[in-house]
Write a structure and sequence with these properties.
The complex is a heterodimer of chains A (441) and B (761). Chain A is mainly β and 441 residues long. Chain A has 2 domains: 88 residues, Ubiquitin-like (UB roll), CATH 3.10.20.90; 336 residues, 7 Propeller (Methylamine Dehydrogenase, Chain H), CATH 2.130.10.10. Chain A has 5 helices and 34 strands. In chain A, the strands form 8 sheets. A 5-stranded mixed beta sheet of chain A has the order 2-1-5-3-4, with helices on one face. In chain A, strands 11-12-13-14-18 form a 5-stranded mixed beta sheet, with no helix packed on it. Among the domains of chain B are: 125 residues, no CATH class; 36 residues, no CATH class; 182 residues, 7 Propeller (Methylamine Dehydrogenase, Chain H); 134 residues, YVTN repeat-like/Quinoprotein amine dehydrogenase (Methylamine Dehydrogenase, Chain H, 7 Propeller), CATH 2.130.10.10. Chain B is built from 13 helices and 35 strands. Chain B has a 5-stranded antiparallel beta sheet. Chain B has a 4-stranded antiparallel beta sheet with strand order 7-35-34-33, with no helix packed on it. The longest helix of chain B is centred in the N-terminal third of the chain and has 25 residues. Chain B starts with a helix and ends with a strand. The N terminus of chain B is likely disordered. The chains are: A mainly beta (441), B alpha+beta (761). At the A-B interface, loops of A face strand 7 and helix 12 of B. Chain B: One of its GO terms (molecular function) is ribonucleoprotein complex binding. Chain B: Keywords: Nucleus, Repeat, Ribosome biogenesis, rRNA processing, WD repeat. Chain B: This is Ribosome biogenesis protein ERB1.
């Protein structure tokens, strides 16, 4: 069998879209037993690079993960025909850059231009970190764990403005200045009756949306409200001691411009369309992904599956929604498709709930997912298996058998992947690292 | 008569031209003339006619009359002549005598004959008395008896012995006694040749002819003297078959009588054809006369369906070889042992032997014995045909839907909530499905965020927490716990809206303001305000029971106002129902029957389920009466749950069983499921989905699909769908202590003796 396999040869033609790596497109004969590494060597040889560059190979938009022969057999292609193989520079396995210790679980993380990282934690604090691992500022104000954070803007690397949502049913807008080491809480958004799980700022930065356990989605404007608005509400809040404290801080109160009801259970995740401020996507415990029209405040479309939706992410590049579910899979949806049964692709490899997903901002095929099984997986939707899987190393060897630390959030900003979870750390991975490794798996 | 016809022929010949009428007149004339002729001839032989009968005479005369009447019609009947021609010859002579004889007497005596009406109504001829002259017939001397051959004893008592021809009595002849008879015999010389005539009751002397007959009979020869046994055969009918038939007419068809037996045989064949036993057109297959014995195509005969093949003989072993390897040979010691052993006990009935070459191998001395044993085996051990039941085992299994089609149900372990330091006895999920509380033996209550597994809050109390229960109403954010003989209400601040918290607080504490009769004799409980420290923890009310027994279970009513507290050891105060808003306590049962295991409120109706050790009693709280008693058939009930529709109940028992009751169906279990290997600790229904689960000391949870149909005729469908294993460890032979379904999702949360709580999704 070995001999016969070696004897089989196939005619291939290499094509690429990356102009700097183009080779001749004349068909050539290669042994069918070759895997990715062998093909990559061929390309490097053809290009005559001294320092080899790893490539990934695709046949019919599917990644080659086995030998050529096995791939052809599995997909039922003939070895007689000329096979067109597209190759791309392979993404190197992300390398863990650094980890920033928090006091409690990290529930939410957002990166801004790969420079500043905003984290929300279960210790009720919000922190801003820079790449060197310094905690630039810590924001205190919420009375319950932070569930979600979102950047609004950064001016001149100094003036930060962002939003935070908490289990204390409020959203706060913050503005801070690094130089003066000062921060203020601009206003407090009151309206939700349950813990707020997710907030999203529209691309135009004029409004933001929040999803809560009380099964409602609320829309808010960015403008700072006038003080006189909230006289009545202060009276109501006076009964609570906690509110009295807040009142001392003298924070402005803001109310939603609209409430969009539709979800039957808790709303776990809301997200705006990358380009269209008018479109809002939300996922909830009622097993549905809903598409909302912001202007008319209507529920445009409902996409149902059988499992609870935890995190969703929309990529303007591929035009797909990715959602993480309680049945350990990631589902991809096409929001433009009219019919209801539109799960385009199901990615399964995680061993527990997938809590959070994030599309790559650079590549329209890549996404990252974090799960309760303690792993972060990077996917290319052209391949059904994950490209890379990360375990967070447990330093304590005694705890090897213990339950893995849950991952609550992931974010992919250009070349940096961020994750936060139960291990109280913010992990940063570089997704475009220099250095060639032969590790294919 | 023959003559008459001859005459007629003559007349015909003579007068051919005469008409028919003439012929008749001639005939009459002829007849008379013939009579005259006859009478003339008869006078000559009248003597010979001694024994002519009067009957004969009358017959003759009648016959003559007849003849006269019929004459005209039979003028040309040839058949008559031919048919009777045989008789003619025979009677020729005799007739002549007869006609001559009686014609004479007739002519003389015809005047004296007169008629009387006989017994049958016809006239009867009475003949005149015969004049006893010399020539008269002597045969009429003795009146002959006419009674026939009847026993003469019938006439013993009468004076007569019968009747003569004219019906006159024949008197008995005088009869002497024995002496007379003797004298008669002695005197009469003819007595030895006389015989007694039975009919006339007197001795008659036998004639010589009669004696001659007797003598001939005694000699053994023919009785009649002139009988010639050797006279030549006269062939009246020829023995030779006639070539020509006597009658030329063919046998008419009407004379054909079909044969019954032939018809029967034909019907037999017809029936066989109808039944197909005889195929009419079938040609007989010619069987080959000779068979090729050694033909290779010849197949062995098919075995009889009931044939049992004989077991095959064991193949020879290595040590049966004539030259086995030495390791097979027995050592001396083994040989000794082998020889000592009883032949029946020997493992092998031979001893391996080594021969250097085949030539030295002796004759096989066990051959006969072996064959004999084999025959004995075949003959004495009956071979029984094992009848395999041709039943597909799959068909015996009830048709249940595939568990895959019954999704969703929890399948895998997702989260573990680890913080407790002792076994977790009780858990409760809030109605929104976001929060979980757990009570443990480490004397703490913990509040968990379900989806992240974060312990949000911890309450430390002074005793083991036996039971916690979240208020089933969404508008009220509070739960109750039981701790020794106290029951407390806790408002978990921070997880609910302020308004809800405020209203809950008012709802729970409003009872303090209501006027209560504090100093009551039969005071059951004490509703106490919490201390400041407790108040900060969110404890709103503490209910201290008068009895000092541990409260094992607390259960809410669906409306969130009433709840019941069970203390199995507290006797008649074992079941108490508290009203939260008014701070009142009721004791629904004056006396409890047996130890109360657990209670449950009906989800819709005002019913109350009380499970004792063996029975579940259903009470109507409004009417205060017992409605139904469910007989579980288990030894010790551990837990009870009521289906959200209210018509079905499941119970778990410490003897590993789970029973499903259909309340409409029967007080006995509809299904008893015995899947656990150890005691069932808790059973629970899902609030929305058709699921129920049981948890057990064997460390597993069993998930069942339990569909209840609205159609009353359709029984509930129960399908075991999943066993959740490998979650909880068994500690001190305690496994999973409690479980509860998530109110909205198909998830189940279980708490175990291994200090953990697990979420299965």
């Amino acid at each position: 069998m070995e001999i016969s396999q070696e004897e089989i040869q196939v005619q291939v033609r290499f094509v690429t879209k990356q102009t700097e790596y183009v080779v001749t497109d004349t068909p050539m004969i290669v042994p069918a037993r070759l895997r990715r590494y062998g093909l990559s060597e061929i390309i490097n040889h053809l290009l005559g690079f001294e320092k080899p560059i790893p490539f990934d190979f695709m046949i019919d938009n599917l990644f080659l993960r086995t030998s050529l022969l096995e791939f052809l057999e599995n997909s039922g292609l003939s070895t007689e025909n000329i096979i067109t193989i597209e190759y791309v520079e392979s993404m190197l396995p992300p390398t863990p850059l650094s980890s920033f210790q928090h006091d409690d679980w990290v529930s939410s993380v957002k990166s801004f231009n790969q420079k500043y990282f905003l984290t929300g934690s279960y210790d009720n604090h919000i922190r801003i970190w820079n790449t060197s691992g310094e905690c630039l500022q810590t924001f205190i104000g919420h009375n319950a764990p932070i569930k979600s954070v979102s950047w609004v803007s950064i001016k001149d690397d100094d003036e930060f403005s962002f939003l935070s949502a908490s289990q204390d049913k409020t959203i706060r807008a913050w503005r801070s200045s690094l130089e003066h080491n000062k921060y203020i809480s601009l206003y407090e958004c009151i309206g939700h009756k349950g813990s707020i799980e997710s907030i999203a700022v529209s691309p135009s930065c004029s409004e933001f949306a929040s999803g809560s356990w009380d099964s409602s989605i609320m829309l808010w404007t960015m403008e700072i409200p006038e003080n006189s608005d909230d006289d009545e509400h202060i009276k109501v809040q006076a009964s609570s001691k906690r509110r009295k404290v807040n009142k001392k801080e003298n924070i402005l109160t803001k109310y939603p411009i609209t409430t969009m009801n539709g979800h039957i259970g808790s709303v776990s995740s809301v997200i705006f369309d990358d380009k269209d401020s008018n479109k809002l996507y939300s996922g909830g415990w009622d097993h549905s992904i809903r598409i909302w029209d912001v202007e008319s405040r209507t529920n445009v479309d409902v996409k149902n599956c059988d499992k609870v939706v935890y995190g969703i992410s929309y990529s303007g590049k591929s035009g797909l929604i990715a959602s993480g579910h309680s049945d350990q899979v990631i589902r991809l949806w096409d929001p433009r498709a009219e019919d209801i049964a539109v799960v385009k692709l199901t990615l399964s490899s995680h061993k527990n709930w997938v809590t959070s997903v994030s599309w790559s901002t650079k590549n329209s095929f890549m996404l990252v997912s974090g799960s309760y099984d303690g792993t972060i997986k990077i996917w290319d939707i052209r391949s059904k298996t994950p490209l890379y899987t990360f375990f967070k190393q447990n330093n304590d060897k005694e705890k090897e058998n213990s339950i893995p630390k849950k991952v609550f959030c992931v974010d992919w900003d250009n070349d940096i992947i961020l994750s936060g979870g139960e291990d109280n750390q913010l992990h940063i991975y570089g997704s475009k690292n220099i250095g060639f490794t032969k590790n294919e798996k | 008569m023959f003559r008459v016809s001859k005459k007629r022929a003559e007349i015909k010949e003579n007068d051919e031209n005469t008409s028919d009428e003439d012929i008749i007149s001639n005939l009459e004339i002829d007849m008379f003339s013939e009579e005259e002729q006859d009478s003339d001839s008869s006078t000559e032989s009248i003597d010979k006619h001694k024994s002519i009968n009067e009957d004969d005479i009358t017959d003759k005369s009648q016959g003559n009359e007849k003849f006269n009447d019929e004459t005209p019609g039979e003028s040309d009947s040839d058949e008559y002549i031919t048919g009777d021609s045989l008789d003619e010859n025979d009677l020729d002579l005799g007739e002549e005598y007869v006609e001559k004889g009686f014609d004479k007497t007739l002519s003389k005596e015809a005047q004296d004959v007169y008629y009387v009406v006989g017994a049958n109504g016809h006239p009867r001829k009475i003949l005149p008395e015969i004049d006893p002259v010399y020539d008269s017939d002597s045969s009429t001397e003795n009146p002959s008896n006419t009674i026939g051959n009847v026993p003469m004893e019938w006439y013993e008592d009468y004076p007569h012995i019968g009747y003569d021809v004219d019906g006159k009595k024949i008197m008995k002849p005088a009869k002497g006694d024995e002496l007379d008879k003797f004298l008669e015999n002695m005197e009469d010389p003819d007595s030895w040749i006389s015989a007694k005539d039975n009919l006339l009751q007197q001795n008659v002397k036998l004639t010589d002819e009669e004696l001659e007959i007797i003598r001939r009979i005694q000699m053994g020869s023919f009785p009649e003297q002139d009988f010639d046994p050797y006279e030549p055969t006269v062939e009246w009918f020829t023995s030779k078959p006639e070539v020509m038939p006597l009658n030329a007419t063919p046998e008419p068809k009407r004379r054909f009588i079909p044969s019954k037996w032939e018809a029967k045989r034909i019907m037999k064949i017809v029936r066989a054809i109808r039944q197909g036993r005889i195929v009419p057109g079938k040609t007989q297959v010619q069987k080959p006369r000779f068979y090729n014995l050694w033909n290779e195509n010849d197949q062995p005969r098919e075995e009889h369906p009931m044939h049992i093949p004989a077991p095959k003989m064991k193949l020879p072993d290595h040590d049966e070889s004539y030259n086995p390897p030495t390791e097979y040979l027995l050592t001396e010691k083994e040989k000794e042992e082998w020889e000592k052993m009883d032949p029946e006990d020997r493992e092998k009935n031979y001893m391996p032997q080594k021969h250097s070459c085949l030539r030295t191998v002796p004759a096989y001395n066990r051959f006969i014995q072996e064959r004999f044993d084999r025959c004995l085996d075949l003959y004495l051990s009956p071979r029984v045909r094992k009848n395999k039941l041709n039943i597909d085992p799959e068909s015996l299994i009830p048709k249940l839907p595939n568990p895959k089609d019954l999704q969703p149900f929890p399948t895998s372990l997702t989260l573990s909530y680890d913080a407790h330091t002792d076994r977790v006895r009780c858990i409760s999920i809030d109605p929104t499905g976001l929060w979980l509380i757990s009570g443990s033996d480490d004397k703490t209550i913990r509040l968990w965020e379900i989806i992240t597994g974060r312990c949000v809050k911890t309450w430390e109390l002074e005793d083991i927490i036996y039971s916690v229960a979240w208020c089933p109403v969404r508008e009220i954010c509070a739960f109750i716990f039981s701790c020794s003989n106290k029951v407390g209400v806790i408002l978990p601040t921070g997880i609910c809206d302020e308004e809800v918290a405020l209203s809950t607080s008012q709802y729970v504490t409003s009872g303090f303001n209501s006027s209560r009769r504090d100093d009551e004799k039969a005071k059951l409980v004490d509703w106490m305000k919490p201390t400041d420290g407790q108040n900060e923890n969110g404890i709103l009310v503490i209910i201290q029971h008068v009895h000092n027994k541990t409260i094992k279970q607390i259960t809410w009513h669906r409306k969130g106002d009433y709840f019941s507290a069970i203390a199995p050891d507290a006797g008649n105060q074992g079941i108490l129902i508290h009203q939260l808003t008014r701070h009142q306590t009721q004791q629904p049962f004056r006396k409890t029957r047996g130890i109360v295991q657990c209670v449950k409120f009906h989800p819709i109706k005002p019913l109350f389920f009380v499970a004792t050790q063996r029975y579940v009693r259903v009470y109507n709280l409004m009417k205060q009466e017992l409605i139904k008693t469910l007989q579980s058939g288990v030894k010790w009930i551990s837990s009870l749950d009521v289906h959200p529709m209210g018509d079905n109940v499941i119970i778990g028992s410490y003897d590993k069983k789970l029973c499903w009751f259909d309340l409409d169906l029967s007080p006995r279990p509809y299904r008893t499921l015995c899947y656990h290997t150890k005691a069932v600790r808790n059973v629970v229904y899902h609030k929305r989905l058709p699921l129920f689960a049981s948890c057990s000391d064997d460390g597993t949870l069993q998930i069942f699909h339990g569909m209840v149909y609205n159609d009353l005729l359709q029984n509930p469908l129960i399908v075991p769908v999943k066993v959740l294993k490998a979650g909880h460890r068994v500690v001190d032979s305690l496994g999973v202590l409690n479980c509860e379904f998530h109110p909205t999702q198909p998830w189940i949360i279980s708490s175990g003796a291994d200090h953990t709580i697990k979420l299965w999704t």
